[in-house]
Amino acid sequence: MSRWTPSVCRFQPTCSHYAVQAIEKHGPWRGGWMALRRIGRCHPFHPGGYDPVR
Question: So where does this one cross the membrane (predicted)?
Answer without folding.
Answer: none
